[in-house]
Amino acid sequence: MKHHRTTLTMNVPARMDFVNITHDVQSAIQESGVKEGLCLVNAMHITASVFINDDESGLHEDYKKWLEELAPFDASPERYHHNRTGEDNADAHHKRQIMGREVMVAITKGKLDFGPWEQIFYGEFDGRRRKRVLVKIIGE
Amino acid sequence: MKHHRTTLTMNVPARMDFVNITHDVQSAIQESGVKEGLCLVNAMHITASVFINDDESGLHEDYKKWLEELAPFDASPERYHHNRTGEDNADAHHKRQIMGREVMVAITKGKLDFGPWEQIFYGEFDGRRRKRVLVKIIGE
Amino acid sequence: MKHHRTTLTMNVPARMDFVNITHDVQSAIQESGVKEGLCLVNAMHITASVFINDDESGLHEDYKKWLEELAPFDASPERYHHNRTGEDNADAHHKRQIMGREVMVAITKGKLDFGPWEQIFYGEFDGRRRKRVLVKIIGE
C-alpha cells in the first residue's frame, strides 16, 4: 500500500468565495504514484469547506446568496451565541456544515475518476487569512 | 490490496426521486472479493446525491417537500443566476449540497457494516435522463 | 494492509445534543497500530450524525437553534408524513442530513491529521436511547 500526503495553502481575499482546486488534487495524485485507490480532500479549518460541483460563476453567486439566507453574517452578540466569545464568524461555521468538510474521490488508472462536470472546490466562509487543505492518498 | 470499480446506471423518470441502491452496492462488494475495507459510493453528476437514511416512503415525501422549500425549482432567470445560462436546474445543484454527493461505507467480513436501518439511496434532483453512480472498493 | 473496527456506544439523555468523541477515535487509531491510512467514523443510526467542527458551547447552542428552525420537531401527523407511521422523529432524519452521517479522517504518523481546531462530534437528534458509532480504520 502506498500513501501520500500534501497540503494546499489557500489565501482568499474575500470573506466568502470558492476556488477550483481540481488541478492541485490531480497533481498530488500524480506525485503519489497511486494508480488505484482513494483520495481524501478536506478543509483543515472549521469555517471552510471542500465540495464537488459545477465550475459555473452564476451558480457560485447563487450559492453565496443562498448560504447567506440560510446562515446570515451577523457579528453582533444577539443572533449567535458564538459571537459572544469575541468571534464574528458563527455564520461561517454554519455555512460550512451545509457545503461539507471533505470529499472522497476515487483514483482509477492514476486519475480522478470523475463524471463529466465534477470539479473540486475549496469553499471559504471566513477568508482574508491563510488556511490549509489536506490531501491524503492511499492505494497502490 | 485489492481494488474494484463499477458503475450503476440510473434513469429516474421524475425530476426528483430517491432510489434504494443498497443491494447493488452489496453485489459490488461481493464481486470485489474484499472482506475488510472501505467502499465509496458517489453520484458522478452534480445534480444528484448518494446518501444513507431510512427506506420509508413518508420520509421521502417529507424530504422532497423540505428540499423544495430550501431550494425551490424556478426555471426563470430571476431567482438563480445559473438559469441565465440556458439551464433550468439551479435548484438541483442546491438540493444536492443538502443531501450530499457521496457516502463511505465500511466493509467487514465481506458485507456492508451497517446499523439496523441504514440503506443507501441515489437522490435524483434533475431526472428524466441517464446518469451514473460510481462504486469504488479498496481493501483485502 | 491493516484493518481495525470498533464501535462507540452513545447514550445521550437529551433529544438533541453533541458529544466530543475525538479522544475515542484517537484511541481506536492507537489500538489499530495503523500509522498511515484512513479512518471512517459514522453514525450507525439514521437520526444521528458525526461531524467535525469547534468544541465551543455557544456554537453548539447556535447549531441547535438553527437546526430547529430548518427542521422543527413536530410529533403531529400534519407536518411530516413520516410521523403518520407512529414515529415522532421525522425532524431528526432531516437534521441529520444537514450535519452529515460520517467523517473521513486522515491518519499520519499514527495520529489524527487535523487542523488546529478540528474536533469530532457525535450529533444526536433523537436521543434518550442507546446508539452506536462505527470506527473503521485501514492503512499500514
Descriptive account of the structure:
The structure is a homotrimer of 140-residue chains. By secondary structure, chain A is an alpha+beta fold. Helices cover 25% and strands 37% of the residues of chain A. Chain A has a five-stranded antiparallel β-sheet with strand order 1-8-3-5-6, covered by helices on one side. Chain A has a three-stranded antiparallel β-sheet with strand order 2-7-4. Chain A is elongated, with a radius of gyration of 16 Å. The N and C termini of chain A lie close together (5 Å). The model of chain A has no long low-confidence stretch (mean pLDDT 98). The interface between A and B is medium-sized, with 34 and 32 residues.
Oligomeric description of these chains? homotrimer
Name the poorly predicted regions of chain A. none
The main pleated sheet of chain A reads as:
5 strands, antiparallel
- What percentage of amino acids of chain A are in beta strands? 35-45%
Q: What's the total number of strands of chain A?
A: 8
- What is the general shape of chain A? elongated
N to C succession of SSEs of chain A = EEHEEHHEEEE
The main sheet of chain A orders its strands as 1-8-3-5-6
- Percent helix of chain A, as a range, is 25-40%
| Rg result of chain A | 16 Å
Give the chain pair forming the largest contact, with residue counts. Answer: A-B, 34 and 32 residues
Q: Number of helical runs of chain A?
A: 3
Q: State the end-to-end CA separation of chain A.
A: 5 Å
Q: What is the average per-residue confidence, as pLDDT of chain A, rounded to a whole number?
A: 98
Which structural class best describes the helix and strand composition of chain A? alpha+beta
